[in-house]
Amino acid sequence: MEKSFEKGIVLDLKSLIDYSEGGVISRQLIKSAAGNITLFSFDKGEGLSEHTAPFDALVQILEGTAEITINGNKFTVGKGESIVFPVNAPHAVFAVERFKMLLTMIKG
Q: Is 55 helix (H, G, I), strand (E, B) or coil?
């Protein structure tokens, strides 16, 4: 069930997206010519295969633990931690356990 959100108030981001058994859910919060901000939830064992992006991307883990691969290097990133995908760097995401993340992409 999608939950709406208001601007100009304090938000608990992880409460704005649910989990889907055996799936990945994304919910775009802000989209503009300058970039976008998107919430994701991943069920355990799910992920995104290796890909690239034409700009830097900041990932903030809101809940759970993810295995993130950048340029072939694996990182375990947990709640409260962040990592940046450098521009054009091959990267992938895997759910070690259920997790939620906030992805911020800004076009340079």
A: coil
